[in-house]
Each structure stands twice: as C-alpha cells, then as structure tokens.
Amino acid sequence: MGARGATGGLAGYVVKRLLGMLLLLAGITFIVFGLMYFAPGDVTVMIAASSPSPEQLAAIRQEFGLDQPPWVQYGRFLRRVAQGDLGDSWIDRRPVMPQVLDAFAYTLRLAAAALALSVTLGTAGGIVAAVRHRSVADESILTVTVLGISVPVFVTGLLLIYVFAFKLGWFPTSGAGSWRHMVLPACTLASFLAAHNVRMMRACMLEVLGQDYVRTARAKGVRERWVLGRHALRNALVPMATVVGLQVGLLLGGSVITETVFSYPGVGQLVVSAISARDTPLVQACVLVTASGFILVNLLVDVSYVLIDPRIRLR
Amino acid sequence: MTRRFSRLVLGVTIGLACAVLSVTAASAQEPRRGGTLTVITPSDVSTFDPHPAVGFSVRVFANIYEPLFRKDEKGVLQGHLAQSWRFLDPTKLQVTLRKGVKFHSGNELTAEDVKFTYERQLNPADLARDAAVIKMLKTPIQVVDRYTLVLETREPNAALVDTLAQSLATLIPDSAEIKKWGKDYGLHPSGTGPFKFVEWVRGQHVKLARNADYWNGPPYLDFLVFKVVPEEATRVLALESGEADVLFETPPSAIATLRKNPKLRVNRVPTYRDVDVHWNARKAPTDDARLRRALSQAIDVKSIVEEVITADIGQVATGLLNPSVFGACDVGFPVYNLARSKQGLAELGYRPGKDGILEKDGRPLSLTLVVNPQRDPRNGEVAEAIQAQLRAVGVDMKVNANEFATYMKILQSPEGDYNMIFHGYGVATADADLKATFFLSTNLPPAGQNSPRFSSPELDGVILAAQRESSKDKRRELYCKMGQIYRDQALGLPLYASFRNTSVQSHVNGMVLHPDEWYTQTYTRVWLGPKP
C-alpha cells in the first residue's frame, strides 16, 4: 500500500501518485478494450437481431468503426478520451458519461451507507470481542461473523426482502430514490463487510492490547477507557484503514449481485448490462470511472495513515 | 394425426377463451377511472425510439405507439391506424388512414408519417432492428393523398397485412418530432397510443400517463408504470407485497405458490412462441440425414416436456409452429422410437467403443449442443435432458451454454460450430410466413438465421409459394408441406409450444392478455377495483 518513510512532502507524493494513476488508467483501458474485442459475440447481433441484411450489418460496423483494425479502434478511443469524450453508447446512442456518472452517484450513496454501517458495527463488535476475549460475548460475536461471511449476499438480500419488505412491509422490495430504498441493500452489503471488519478489528485489538506500552499504561494506573481509546484503538485502526480502503474500492466497482437483487441502478448493474450488450464505450466508461474512484480512495487511505499515526511519512 | 392436431387447436382455443374469461371475470362491476398500474419488467428500455430499440422496450412501446393493423387476442386481424385497405393488385396494397388521429405532440397522423417511418427503417444507415420484417416493401412509398398511401412489394405477399400488424417495424412514430429532436428523439417519444411518456428513471421505471385525447377512447388508468426488477425472486416478492400489480412472466418455480395466494390471479396464456432444437445439416457428422433421423428418434420429447417443461410452461409440439399461429400443422412430431434409433445407428456403422460411446472408423460420435439458458425457462435443463437421453444410446453430446450475444454470434457465424442448437421463436405476426422465411436458402448464415443450415430448391419453392399464395387453404397446405420436409430431412425437433403465466393482483380488472409476447399487450381497458 502506501510508501512509508521519513522524508518527502505530502503534496509531492500526491502529485506523483496522480501521474501514476494516468498510466494505470491507460493500461486498464487497454485491457478492457482487449477483453471486449476478443469476447465472443458483438454488438451487431444485439442491434440487428432478426435476419439483418449484409448492408445493415456493414452500416453498423462502419458507424461504430468496427470495420477498422483493432489498433485503429483503440487509438481513436484514446484520442477521444484525451479530449474528454468517452463517446456514445452503441445501444441507445446517448453519451455514456452522464449515464455512468448517474449510476456512480447511486453506487456512491449505497457504498457510503454500507461502509458507515460496516465500519461502525465492525469496530464496535471487534472491540467488544477483543476486550471480552474468550467470553460468551466473544464467542457469540465470532459465530455471527462466520454467518455473515459464509451466507452468500443474494441469500442475505432475499431474506431481508422477505422479512422486512414482504412480511413486515417496512421497506420497499427494490428500487432507489429514497433513504428507505437504501436500507436493505446497505444492510446486505454491510452484513458481509462488517463480519470481516469485526474479525479484523478483534485481531488488531488483541495484538495491540498485548503490547508493552499498553501493559505500562495499565501499570501506571491509566483508566481502562483511556487505555483502550487512546493507546489501543488508535494503533489498531491503521490496519483497519487499509482493509476499509480496499472495501471502498470493492463497493465503488458496484456490488453487482446486491444491485441486481434490489434493482438498485448502480454502476455494477450498468456494467453488467453493457457487457451483455457488448456496448464497449459504456463498458470502458464504467471501468474508467470506477477504476479512478478505486485509485483515488487508495490514495486517500495512504494519506489517512499520516492522520491516524503521525509517525508515518509518505514519499 | 389430424385428430390429435385438431384436439390441440381446440385446447389452445379453449385455453385462450379461459384466459380472457378469467381475467375479465372480476370486471362484472362498472369500470372506474383512476389509479396507477405497476407492471414488472425484467429489464430496462434502451431508448424510446421504437426502431433501434432492443430488449423489453417493446412492451412499453405497445402503449405509446401503434401500427396500421393489429390482431386481437383471438388472432383476428383488424384495422388500427388503418381505416380501410385493399389490394390494388397482388403487389400493391392501398391503405387509408383514420382521420383525426393525433400524436401526443398534437400533430395529426398522415400518410407522410407512415412513408417516413418505413423509408427510415429500410435505410440501412438508420439501423432499425426489425427492418428485415418489412424488407419486402419497395421504396419510395407512394403517398396518394393526406390519408392514403400505397405499399408496394417486390413479389406478391399474402402475409403482408399480418406482417404489418405486429412488429417493432410497424409502429408509427411522429415524423415531425423525429425530425425536430434528431438523435435525442429517443427521450422525447410521440406516438398515437393510449398512454403518453412522462418519465424514464434509468434502471428504475418508466412512467406513462393517460392520453385523454386517445382516438379509440381514453384509458381508465391515470398512470402506467413499468418497474424494472432484474432479479426473478425479487419480482415475485414485489408482486406478493403489493408493490406491483402485474408480473408479465411468472417464473415457473413461483407459479404454484402464487396460485395459492388469494390476492392474486395467475393466468396461463397461450402464446405464438415455440421452442425447437435444430440439427446443423452442414457440420459433420450431422450433415448425414440418416444420422440426424436416428438421433432424433433417441430423444423422448414428450417425457422432456412433461417432466422438465411441465404443463404450466408448454405443451408437446407436433409441428414447427405454435398451434395459435396460422399455418401450424401436425406433421407427426414427436418421432421418439428408441429401437429404431439404435437400429439406425447400427446400420450406419456405429459400434460401442470406449466408455460406451459409439464409434465409426475409430471416431467417437461426439456432438455439440448450443443453448442460451436465459431466454426460455428451463432451456438449460432441457439441454441436459437431451444430453442424458443421447448418452443412453452412446452419443457424447457436449452442452455449450452461452449468454445471448455469444449464442447469436455462433448461430449466425459462417462456420456454424454446433451440431444442434436451441431456437425459440415468437411468431409475432401469428402467421407462419415470419418463421418460414428463416428456412430459405437466402437466410443461410451469415446472411440470416437458417439455423439448420439446410437449403433445397424444393423447400425454397414451398416457402415462397406460400408467401405468394392468396388462398388461405392452399397456404395452410404449403406450410404443412414445409413441416413435412423439415421432418423428412430430420432438420430438428420441435419441443414445445409455450404458455405464458401472467400474474395480476385480484383488483386489476379488464385485462385482456394477448398471446403476442412483445408488440401488442396494451392496458387501455384496464381499471382498478377496490383493493381486497
């Protein structure tokens, strides 16, 4: 993850990472283009499904530049991206960027809700489990986390819909638009992430609580709440920040299954439908936006190390 | 054989009548205006421009746009935007439009709109998806006066009016609005239909509002909402929880549960769709008709349909077309005869080899079956059943399951890398011609979807003769002949004629469920009673 050291300014580090990000994104577009190019099936059969004439197929291929060699197609794409234009969808002929940004905004909201829930539950559960090590509370929390990790998200999602939407009628079964629509998908995603976070937090806390400085603090008569909050928790949060950063990346890519179960119009659903339709410009835009989000979040996580632990330096 | 077919047709007719009766039974009360009907759809629309649209868009379009002709739920052809029509000669159809029909924009429908529509679609640069359906029309279209036009075909075409009744290619949008909005017309649709476009929240829903000026009497509903729910289980729960009123296609696994729910009605509706598996007559070893015949006799279609498909989803096919479609004919399918199959394989020189797989000249009898498991319910399981039955006679059948784009690419590829392929088809015009043309030699891949990849002057002659013939009886005979050639050449196995199970809330009244899956389901006469 983050480079650590004693020298180097934070601003210089961020600029360097942002420049690296451009190269990384170019590499990603190349891979996505290659995958879409070699994927069996193409957009022409999606557009002209019932016995198209050869002239019609030729017209489609010409309009989308599919009659050109792959390097020409990719070169044209890069040139457009450099001009800030990711092109139009091959299926609905509308610019792809507004569609992707709309979906990304939905994904961001869901990711934020799921993350807030999973970090809160994960941190609290992990601390309780570590402090009450080998107690009934610890064992119970661990059992619940096993369930959270092992039950597939689509099962969790459908169970939540069945109980809270169908039986109790508290929330809608699917869709988006209000906070009520977000509760069940956020809980579904959070159940899986929180389980991981509890176990991670518990392990980190147990390690930190066994350190000499904690023992020293306790020997000095520092209040337990202070020991946990000031000495243990702060140090245990550094590895947690890494894990949460990765989780944000995952969430930004869109949780395809959760979004599908709840008909949530995020970027995960959009990219899956774009891949099915072989709509390369839309796939490229989805990947570029989510990859940029992922890289930026990782950068923020690295910067956050400094805030959590002032001893860390970035270069 | 004929009696069996008559029974089948009778069964379908009774089924249709029951479906119509069951959904209208609750409408004994007086219809009342108002309310919102929410219909669940598994995928979003791609655009509101009907011509380049893909996927489930068409289910929404039937309420916004209209064709010149329409077939009712009993298959009776009626003029819709066309007031009257007559053939001037076998290649010229004169159509007179209804006067005073307004688009949602306020523009009046004229012959120029129809001319613009068809010419737009027949221009390859416009990439109209269903253009092939109307490719028999000659352009330019001749406009006689403001409300009259003449549609000319290259050859006599007996199914022309049926063809213009049900397809994306036949919906007439507002040409002035298309010219005004250009590329953005897809977000500003204007048709003559009973509902007007209100909003489209991508991936969420489409909302339409009552067209108070609808020429055929405004609808009862204030709003019609199509709610997008991709996940099957969520669709069912959305209906059960009362969030939605209509589930157009009930998943087979949910039918029994929903039937027990007193708040819902599950209507089994005959469709125009049938599902077949075709052999590839151009790829070894299935390029040998004797082998295709022997293999066809090893597949027990009746047991597959009864056990895997079940009576809720389909009935055993006896010919190439769904019995609801004009030209359907019992040509002696299913052809299952295990003893003859084994005998036929032995006569061809196939002998059991390693692992019990039949071999000839040291080469195992190994085949590939291509299937798109998503399109029809239980396609995947049917493929596995075929695989197991062929394995029982010593054939190694590999199942190659693909999502739609890949499946279509294989189907239309010049090389045709399959020995057998699934082909489900809804004959939207309810006339055999639409499906029959698949089997023309001019539609051999990559030009078309002649998936058995078989062509003969005799088969071409029969299909084209049926297309030109104006006598219905003679056309019916010709389509029977087509089915017989298909059977004699062992080009494939018709599996089943599909049913659709549409579930609705019990307070939804006046719904006439149409056998056509795509183009015709409207909600004009639907009204909402008090919720139970």
Quick summary:
The complex is a heterodimer of chains A (315) and B (532). Chain A has 315 residues and is mainly α.
Please state the overall shape of chain A, judged from the principal axes of the Cα atoms.
flat
Oligomer kind: heterodimer
The Cα radius of gyration of chain B reads: 24 Å
User: How big a fraction of the residues of chain A is strand?
Assistant: under 5%
Give the largest chain-chain interface (CB within 8 Å).
Answer: A-B, 52 and 52 residues
Number of helices of chain A: 13
What gap, in angstroms, lies between the N and C termini of chain A? 12 Å
Number-wise, the strands of chain B total 22
Structural class of chain A: mainly alpha
Helicity level of chain B: 25-40%
Radius of gyration of chain A: 24 Å
Helix content of chain A: over 70%
The 3D shape of chain B can be described as globular
Arithmetic mean of pLDDT of chain A:
84
Which key features would you list for this structure?
heterodimer; A: 315 residues; mainly alpha; flat; disordered N terminus; B: 532 residues; alpha+beta; eleven-stranded mixed sheet; 22 strands
